[in-house]
Write a structure and sequence with these properties.
The protein is of the alpha+beta class and about 950 residues long. The strands form 9 sheets. The protein has an 11-stranded mixed β-sheet with strand order 48-47-51-45-44-43-41-42-46-50-49. Strands 5, 6, 7, 8, 9, 10, 13, 15, 18 and 19 form a 10-stranded antiparallel β-sheet that branches. Strand 21, helix 8 and strand 22 form a beta-alpha-beta unit. The radius of gyration is 30 Å and the shape is globular. The two termini are about 40 Å apart. This is Neutral alpha-glucosidase AB.
Amino acid sequence: MAAFSERMGLLFLACLLLCLSATQAVDRGNFKTCDQSAFCKRQRAMKPGQSAYRALLDTLELSDSRLTLQLINDNNKVRLLLELYRLQGNMTRVKINELKPLKPRYEVPDVLITDPPTEPLSVLSQDENGVVLSLGAETRRLIVSARPFRLDIMEGPQVLLSLNSRGLLAFEHLRLRKDTLSDKISSTVGSMWDKIKNVFSSNSQTDPAGAERTEDSDTADQHVEEKAADGESDKEDEQPGEWDETFKSHTDSKPNGPSSISLDFSLPGVEHVYGIPEHADNLKLKTTDGGDPYRLYNLDVFQYELYNPMALYGAVPVLLSHNAQRTMGIFWLNAAETWVDISSNTAGKTVFGKMLDYVQGASETPQTDVRWISESGIIDVFIMLGPKPTDVFSQYASLTGTQSFPPLAALAYHQCRWNYNDQDDVRAVDQGFDDHDIPYDFIWLDIEHTDGKRYFTWDPNKFSQPRDMLQNLMDKRRKMVAIVDPHIKVDSGYKIHNEIRSKNFYIKNKDGGDYEGWCWPGSAGYPDFTNPEMRAWWASMFAYDQYEGTMENLYTWNDMNEPSVFNGPEVTMHKDAVHGNWEHRDVHNLYGFYVQMATADGLIQRSGGVERPFVLTRAFFAGSQRFGAVWTGDNAAEWDHLKISIPMCLSLGLVGISLCGADVGGFFKSPNQELLNTALIREVVRQRYTLLPYWYQLFYHAHRTGNPVMRPLWVEYPEDVATFAIDDEFLLGRDLLVHPVTEEGARGVTAYLPGSEVWYDVHTFQKHNGGQNLYIPVTMSSIPVFQRGGSIIPRKNRPRRSSSCMESDPYTFYVALGSQKTAEGELYIDDGHTFNYEKQRQFIHRRLSFANNVLASSNLAPDAQFSTASWIERIIFLGAHKPSAITLRMSDGSESPVEFEFDAAMSVLTLRKPGMNAGADWTVVLR
């Protein structure tokens, strides 16, 4: 997508002597494996078997919208509270928490866009073994088994999904440390003796302790009593890393002790699972037996390796399963460090082995098992039952929201590097694009534009006149993005720092002082973005009278917001730092989410709620799609990184984040001419600009429905097993199939064309049948792209210096006829940058259809009002026959002939200058 960044942090990091590797790949020693993460190691040591948990059916309570039930661990007698909800849209929510925790456990706020609406639950049957609940549809049921505890979601005789079928539910309950426990027991016994003496000395007939007891003391005493009565202290011998943990030079204190949670899910009939970004890996997730689980923990991992499960900059705990019958999703709502284990009973079997099983009559049903392990919090999981891929997308969108609708310019080309030297450099780069006839919309400024890495400022020597610089860009209808990071230089002469400190908005260390770490400016404080007051203040700083030198064509980039702390454990924040009432370990993966939320709010507020923002973030979580864009971080200028960018963005699209890109040309290293060549760049960027109308309507639909813009083939061809593992080609919407060339020196690629329809090469208009692997010879300038037969795609074929310069330019419609000689498509137009499409319904949305030799444009939004100067200058039919005449009919009844040309060799019919307005009703009749 856009060249979001070309910063090169290696030199600076080396100068800071932070012991970060200067080799050609990530220094794995800086980041934990599961064995080095105490809670992951503890949980993973637990092997599948019979669960220790039992459902106490006599505690079952059922209301219209919720079922509650207590679970008991038969080993330590600790009780948990299970809550079940049937949600609208074919979803089920499962929550498990301690029944009486010593203190509240963290529950993730702000990610869900609303309290999910529920539907009635009803009990179909119950006995001593369990209870059967109706999930609405006659054949869809939820079965709660009592001993051991297990949940099964059924449809007819088929098990769709099971929880705890492998017995890996584990809930480390909050408890007192052994030395504290001994003191508590002694104190409790002494207190009881004192109270008994008081009773006898006063001859009181009332309970002397009654007025003193509190719920907290009840809970604490309950834990003491449980331990004393059941010998829990013997059964739960302290293990390494429960109360403190050391990694390299950092020790993580754990005042709340061990608090991790785990739950397993079984997916019968499933061999393909996807999601849980961000990882530099294939789209189809691998089994993790014999290696590390996939890790979800936002980290600054520069020079990241490919094809491994290491954590990267973002974490979206959503996994999708797919087979030819059904797509489902699991959303694990937990913001703590999380590991995901995947196992499969078909893993390692070759195609021949599977065929042999079939010939020999083997009856083993494929199954994938997924285990989630998080360091703290509660179990709060949403099971999205599909059944279609688009159903899962809409189900997840109903929970966390859809992709924000970006300004049109945000979908165009962005130019960035670390760093442009000064305003003259910016002017020269801007002019260079014009000289080379390459369009662009945004130029970016990295950290060096600030005054000594103080964000919300400008370098007084190199960027002394920022408004002049922005005005020069505005005169060319171009824009700028400037970086604003969430590490704040500790400097008493810096207004931003002084205000944050005076308002007590910094994250605290474990001892209560302001947390400080080392980042680009040196010693830095980290604002507590989990605090809504802090977020509101941060948003106010983007006002034009606060952020001096800014104008309406300046937008924002949030980097380093994992958060990155150069001298912290794993280059991030200490887990025992404190956000209000919560430790950083509870909220870590939410930090970047909140930074982007506050920044996007600031850009909206500065315009009085009129203008759509553009904010790029490096760290992200579930729901980040509501606030803007992400990119895949500090990649390398290598072919393998080009190739991996495809499954990385496909994975993000599956979990709601469609506005995704990778550094074009790479962040590290220098690309060769084949990988990055000026003439090729010019052609590719210009092609991008011609397709902006199509990209824009795809993002409009993503915003409305949650459907990804860039999508795997199986999303549109869910029954075609051949598509399930493909991640070197992709679809844009339904209608464009792209197979990039990702191998150096390639002379050809093999693309799979799915479905029973035909596909047209968009460059040559050659027609190919679907359902085949097609070998395509390529040159250095080739990008194989095909348009689906039966589709209509709008383009603007006059690329100019920026997208806004093309606002009133005419359209060309590409009508690719299917096997039935029909086609359909859409055209969406609005002003490209405000919320007026939503608030005042100022937009054009038209249906384009071709059938029975008639092409028609009809209004999909009769209540919307918008006008455009754009007109239709050309209509190109692919796979057409030569007509004898063509007539244009307008809504007022007027008719006029249309000039045309026909290429018999390619079956291409071209209508020239039919001339109707893009927002009008009309029909074109082929005779």
